[in-house]
């Protein structure tokens, strides 16, 4: 397996990142731990979770699995802060108060003394960015966090954060975690060039478009165990006619190449310019086993125009930015 550099840090990570969003939710603890151990055995050394995933259960399961395996120090462990973790008015957001408390809570759940990559889950639209960066800076200086990153930020806010870090001598973001898949390629317009110029790792979430590209919704029905059923309208809005049509064509391409649709969709995302490590979140051990071969695959250059013909670079046929407050455009066809 060819490991990739995490931004400009010198840290090497696997070309796929194990996402833990399902752990403690649709995937029970025992199955989740089996998935984690199998992924580590296969060479994946990068795990991403968040404090809000299943009310902290995801972090607890990841922490337990790493402690049991004795492989914590061989894993680049990433988690996130922003979402609501309690009833009080300061139990969410990007304030120093919340970030410092949330970090301590995550460390406890993860059963570790440090977080390798601590990410801001969403931007703080009404809080000065230096408030957030100074809290992150203190966490890094104290040794509780190694690196910081952000998630689902517009390119201009990432650039603003880099400029503020430079101005005040604060720790800088080394990564951004955006939604990115064949159905929604809008980050190619500004975020990808920004990341390439300033040495930021890009860690896409939803590279399989929440199962749309795997063919889960080809029949037009909503399976009872699907992400659309669990997440409701926010996800169902992403299932568009054009998106399903693209997924059907990807399935045809995959069959011609002796692959599954999920493998081909993940491979396309993994090998796009500027991408470091897509985050895939298997719900079952079988899902993991299906996708592990992508670690060793490479996308054929002659296939790239075929994908571009399905969805033109920089465009979208489904809206995977509909979970944030800053994106005004909506895709509903």
UniProtKB/TrEMBL annotation:
Keywords, comma-separated and alphabetical: Oxidoreductase
Domain of life (superkingdom): Bacteria
GO cellular component assignments: cytosol
Residues annotated as transmembrane: none
Domain annotation NADP-dependent oxidoreductase: ranges: 15-310
Molecular function terms, GO-annotated: oxidoreductase activity
Keyword flag Oxidoreductase: yes
Listed Pfam families: Aldo_ket_red (PF00248)
Name of the protein described by the UniProt record: Oxidoreductase
Source organism: Anaerolinea thermophila (strain DSM 14523 / JCM 11388 / NBRC 100420 / UNI-1)
């Amino acid at each position: 397996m060819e490991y990739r550099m995490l931004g400009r840090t010198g840290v090497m990570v696997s070309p796929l990142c194990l996402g833990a969003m399902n752990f403690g939710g649709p995937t029970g603890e025992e199955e989740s731990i089996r998935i984690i151990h199998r992924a580590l055995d296969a060479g994946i050394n990068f795990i991403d979770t968040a404090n809000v995933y299943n009310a902290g259960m995801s972090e607890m399961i990841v922490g337990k699995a790493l402690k049991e395996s004795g492989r914590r120090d061989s894993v680049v462990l990433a988690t996130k802060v922003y979402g609501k973790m309690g009833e009080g008015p300061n139990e969410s957001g990007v304030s120093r108060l919340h970030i410092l408390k949330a970090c301590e809570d995550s460390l406890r759940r993860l059963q570790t003394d440090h977080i390798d990559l601590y990410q801001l889950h969403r931007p703080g639209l009404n809080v000065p960015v230096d408030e957030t960066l100074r809290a992150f800076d203190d966490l890094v200086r104290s040794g509780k966090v190694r690196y910081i990153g952000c998630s689902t930020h517009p390119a201009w806010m990432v650039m603003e954060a880099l400029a503020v870090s430079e101005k005040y001598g604060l720790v800088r973001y080394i990564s951004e975690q955006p939604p990115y898949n064949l159905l929604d390629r809008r980050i190619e317009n500004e975020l990808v060039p920004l990341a390439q110029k300033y040495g930021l790792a890009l860690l896409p979430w939803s590279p399989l478009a929440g199962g749309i590209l795997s063919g889960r919704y080809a029949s037009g029905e909503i399976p009872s165990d699907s992400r659309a059923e669990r997440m409701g309208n926010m996800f169902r809005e992403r299932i568009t006619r054009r998106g399903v049509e693209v997924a059907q064509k990807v399935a045809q391409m995959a069959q011609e190449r002796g692959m599954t649709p999920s493998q081909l969709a993940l491979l396309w995302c993994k090998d796009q310019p500027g991408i470091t490590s897509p985050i895939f979140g298997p719900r079952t051990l079988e899902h993991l086993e299906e996708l592990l071969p992508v670690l060793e695959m490479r996308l054929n250059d002659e296939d790239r125009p075929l994908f571009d013909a399905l969805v033109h670079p920089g465009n979208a046929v489904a809206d995977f930015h509909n979970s944030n407050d800053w994106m005004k455009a909506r895709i509903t066809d």
